[in-house]
Amino acid sequence: xxxxxxxxxGLVQAGxxxxxxxxSSGRTFSNYAMGWFRRAxxxxxxxxxxxxxxGAKTYYTLSVKGRFTISRDNAKNTxxxxxxxxxxEDTAVYYCAADNxxxxxxxxxxxxSWGQGTQVTVSS
Length: 124
Hints:
The chain is mainly beta. It contains no helices and eleven strands. It has strands at residues 3-7, 10-13, 18-25, 34-39, 46-51, 58-60, 68-73, 78-83, 92-99, 111-114, 118-123. The strands form two sheets. Strands 2, 4, 5, 6, 9, 10 and 11 form a seven-stranded mixed beta sheet that branches. The protein has a four-stranded antiparallel beta sheet with strand order 1-3-8-7, with no helix packed on it. Strand 5 and strand 6 form a beta hairpin. The chain starts with a strand and ends with a strand. 34% of the residues are buried.
């Protein structure tokens, strides 16, 4: 059973930065792809970014490309999301996710373990 604990959310002004962290336990972290998703008020949960087991491959939704960076430290069993140039439309609860089966990102449906979420609020 994978446990995921996010931290680093908060309130920031537009144009500012935040770094989210997600600590994983319960299985071999380095074997699996990891991802970040978000859910804005009244919206469906959406994919934000994913990273392969080694960190060599990263994937982003178009709206965050060039502003957000996903990374991982397999020695610390932690995945990060660095968010720069934040916009009010980035306001959401951000969730860390672990892939159930694969070492590389194959699509949102393969993520089966989720953290509790951390709130990110960007004021204009």
